[in-house]
UniProtKB/TrEMBL annotation, chain A:
<keyword id="KW-0653">Protein transport</keyword>
<comment type="subunit">
    <text>Adaptor protein complex 2 (AP-2) is a heterotetramer composed of two large adaptins (alpha-type subunit AP2A1 or AP2A2 and beta-type subunit AP2B1), a medium adaptin (mu-type subunit AP2M1) and a small adaptin (sigma-type subunit AP2S1).</text>
</comment>
<dbReference type="Pfam" id="PF02883">
    <property type="entry name" value="Alpha_adaptinC2"/>
</dbReference>
<dbReference type="InterPro" id="IPR012295">
    <property type="entry name" value="TBP_dom_sf"/>
</dbReference>
<feature type="region of interest" description="Disordered">
    <location>
        <begin position="583"/>
        <end position="616"/>
    </location>
</feature>
<dbReference type="InterPro" id="IPR016024">
    <property type="entry name" value="ARM-type_fold"/>
</dbReference>
<feature type="binding site">
    <location>
        <begin position="48"/>
        <end position="52"/>
    </location>
    <ligand>
        <name>a 1,2-diacyl-sn-glycero-3-phospho-(1D-myo-inositol-3,4,5-trisphosphate)</name>
    </ligand>
</feature>
<dbReference type="InterPro" id="IPR009028">
    <property type="entry name" value="Coatomer/calthrin_app_sub_C"/>
</dbReference>
<dbReference type="GO" id="GO:0072583">
    <property type="term" value="P:clathrin-dependent endocytosis"/>
</dbReference>
<dbReference type="Pfam" id="PF01602">
    <property type="entry name" value="Adaptin_N"/>
</dbReference>
<dbReference type="InterPro" id="IPR002553">
    <property type="entry name" value="Clathrin/coatomer_adapt-like_N"/>
</dbReference>
<dbReference type="InterPro" id="IPR017104">
    <property type="entry name" value="AP2_complex_asu"/>
</dbReference>
<comment type="function">
    <text>Component of the adaptor protein complex 2 (AP-2). Adaptor protein complexes function in protein transport via transport vesicles in different membrane traffic pathways. Adaptor protein complexes are vesicle coat components and appear to be involved in cargo selection and vesicle formation. AP-2 is involved in clathrin-dependent endocytosis in which cargo proteins are incorporated into vesicles surrounded by clathrin (clathrin-coated vesicles, CCVs) which are destined for fusion with the early endosome.</text>
</comment>
<feature type="binding site">
    <location>
        <begin position="2"/>
        <end position="3"/>
    </location>
    <ligand>
        <name>a 1,2-diacyl-sn-glycero-3-phospho-(1D-myo-inositol-3,4,5-trisphosphate)</name>
    </ligand>
</feature>
<keyword id="KW-0813">Transport</keyword>
<dbReference type="GO" id="GO:0006886">
    <property type="term" value="P:intracellular protein transport"/>
</dbReference>
<dbReference type="InterPro" id="IPR050840">
    <property type="entry name" value="Adaptor_Complx_Large_Subunit"/>
</dbReference>
Amino acid sequence: MRGLAVFISDIRNCKSKEAEIKRINKELANIRSKFKGDKALDGYSKKKYVCKLLFIFLLGHDIDFGHMEAVNLLSSNRYTEKQIGYLFISVLVNSNSELIRLINNAIKNDLASRNPIFMGLALHCIANVGSREMAEAFAGEIPKILVAGDTMDSVKQSAALCLLRLYRTSPDLVPMGDWTSRVVHLLNDQHLGVVTAATSLITTLAQKNPEEFKTSVSLAVSRLSRIVTSASTDLQDYTYYFVPAPWLSVKLLRLLQCYPPPDPAVRGRLTECLETILNKAQEPPKSKKVQHSNAKNAVLFEAISLIIHHDSEPNLLVRACNQLGQFLQHRETNLRYLALESMCTLASSEFSHEAVKTHIETVINALKTERDVSVRQRAVDLLYAMCDRSNAQQIVAEMLNYLETADYSIREEIVLKVAILAEKYAVDYTWDDVQGYAAKTVFEALQAPACHENLVKVGGYILGEFGNLIAGDPRSSPLIQFNLLHSKFHLCSVPTRALLLSTYIKFVNLFPEIKTTIQDVLRSDSQLKNADVELQQRAVEYLRLSTIASTDILATVLEEMPPFPERESSILAKLKKKKGPSTVTDLEEIKKERSSDMNGSAEPTPVNASNVSTPSPSADLLGLGAVPLTNSAPAPSSSGSLLVDVFSDSSSVAAPLAPGSEDNFASSSDLASSEVVSEEPADAVHDADELIHKFICKNNGVLFENQLLQIGLKSEFRQNLGRMFIFYGNKTSTQFLNFTPTTKPVDPIVDGGAQVQQVVNIECISDFMDAPILNIQFRYGGTLQNLSVKLPITLNKFFQPTEMSSQDFFQRWKQLSSPKQEVQNIFKAKHPMDTEITKAKIIGFGSALLEEVDPNPANFVGAGIIHTKTIQIGCLLRLEPNLQAQMYRLTLRTSKEAVSQRLCELLSEQF
Amino acid sequence: MRGGAGPGRATGTGARGRDGRGGAMMRFMLLFSRQGKLRLQKWCVAAGERERRKMVRELMQVVLARKPKMCSFLEWRDLKVVYKRYASLYFCCAIEGPDNELLTLELIHRYVELLDKYFGSVCELDIIFNFEKAYFILDEFLMGGEIQDTSKKSVLKAIEQADLLQEEDESPRSVLEEMGLA
């Protein structure tokens, strides 16, 4: 197309932007007139002009015509015209729906043409545009092309990726179906290009539909195994610089990261693959070219990602860590960058955290010597991730050092990280030092003739609270402090001035010697008669307070501010906002855990009023005493130790649990097996202990969920009584019929999407081991569903916390020293050993947390009383963490062996 | 219980606390010169024209400001940018976080190899004057942000096949006709 080349030359010869625009406008006018002209253009000219338009667009100019001509080209039977038409549409059309409808027909024809080249163009166009309209039109057709037996390999590749693109934009329009299993089998295809494209597709689909694609795991492992063990020339053109099929290897490793570690048989083979990849990293390179080492290391890094994802093979994790350690000192900057990044995730695994920590000096050195800020940033991230109590001081010190010379772009982030680490790990500072230091620092900063108003606010607050700590120094005497702040007063906005007035009244309390000076200021017209109501009111009230209140009252009113309440760290939130959630690692998860109870307490909304057989859950849960407790029959002494009594609280009738059952829960487990014969075997009691453990330290949450039903709980316990709200949600769009939980009857029909709730009252008659079982039956779409779940009612729910002094505690501790009263368990930590979380868990468990009782501040002690109907059992507990070994020792002492035993079991599961 | 009623709807099920790495894709690819002239852009996700131009401008600035020997990866917005300079041209890919950086670097290299093979010692001018070919080659190689075929042979075969079709299509024309003067 010479005309095009000439035009491009012209543009390149333009000496100025203006000349270029002039030339373009001339061309646009020319093209427009050609398109509008009477003479029909032949395909070649059309193609040339459309190409010119494309070029102009790519130079950054807007194009508002030519689309129709492009659509014409695209419908042509000539390949080159079609190709340019498709290119124009792909580059210019940004989901312009009207145009898309125009081209859909042409695309349909090409897809049906059985000409692989035309089909390829059409698939590319669909993928390039990738809009919802495209998905609506073609998402049904493409899977068929993909799995049809006679489709050419190249078309299969395009179809797989095209479908992937549509799935990403509109997953709802790509229904899973018979084709999925056939796609999985493409992993066995002979053509490696097909396998590569199919792996990309399967990986994305498997993330959302893991069940549907789980057979891909073993296929992916065997494919991977064949690749990593192949000689470097076996795969011919798919060998890239002596590395066999690096793209496919990486994709297979990525697919495996959608799943947990596979079954033992497959797992052995996978472990071999991963070991082979790690071994190859130690072999001498087969080529000096950087492409060879890049491709090889790309596979290695992806393998390490998988190892970290599985987080189950300590051996591999440590080997991965050592390998990354070598890269930390590699001469290639890229590898140092990636090693730092990868190690960050490795640091959060319990198996490799310690191994990562051994590289601390290298990482600190990177922070000091790397010349590229993006690498230094990775070093900061890694230091943050590897920080724990043992190295917090060193790491924070290094970060602070670095801060002085750090690039402006990352300073804020470093400050936030330092603040978080300090908040989390600082243990031995004395507040006075910090407060005095803060007062001194702001005082000095305020000396600057011009300072930011925010500094005045901070200074006003800190000096008002802690100015006394620096008042001994004649250079910062009370009067000097006051004059300094007041010199800024008139330049500040109203809110700041209001804050300063509060500082002044605090000064009256802190420094009686300057009281009259301050009163004079408050009394001045500019304050007392200030046009701003807030300022005026403060001046009047503070002046009055300073005049009439005795020093005692003043001291009480203006007492030091209490510590801020514990809540999600605002600095952490800020860091998250700044960095995106993925980069804030373990600390964040800990916070999540901490707030999970809050999430669990969302107020349920009754969906269908007629189904609500019980009072609204917002009724006073603590008013248990007011409810007539109709039945508390003594537990049968024969059957086990299950003595929790569950019964209805319908105000008049003592409703039986279920037809034919006895009126306590002890027999409900019999019901599960002997009651109505169901058409389907009852599900096993659902992972009973797992669920129970989830609820040991909390009372609300989702107890059970499958595709049909969700069971939520909300419960409250006091002394030996409890009340539990159970919410049954129908997750389907179909009615449940004959809905019968064994606790007590509810409306037998549960509409699709509706929720039924019921309340059960609970009484603990004597200490017990097993939790009661809730058995539910209902008919869904013709089949009888039968379901059994353990209700999370555990002995510790009947705990009442008891506060006691250190002396009392140890006196009682000694009294309970017979071997039968004490139960001890030594176990490995299953979660990060975080003090705050541990405290929260002990409190959630129900006992009081006794501070400053144990001579060793790292230990936790608790005390409480288990209330049963017959007796009360005093319990003492002591938890001794051993950070170094990542172990705990938990000791329970109660007057009853079985109680000590049970509580110890329950609590041990929590750490 | 659709619509979020009921107590304690479980918040997130990701047991590991981070998203599975699974499918991560390339968001876009740019070719630009040392002078900051954009030579090719390939977008794999929908974005408005204005937003695209803004991103291109911003990213070119960031990359052009970097010194040689610096790391080839950088974090930019919520993406990772992988770039490499070949003679006067920068090849620059924006990928999603979990994607493999080193392999993206080699994807760029593979594309350069393909261009080189096709044009024979490719230079910036080849790409300027035959921009549509550069797009066609890229399309044979990449689709929807994923690599379609990593084999150099099969990509080149596809391009050659297309060129053959083109020759059959086109009858020779006079120079005057070509220039639109006939």
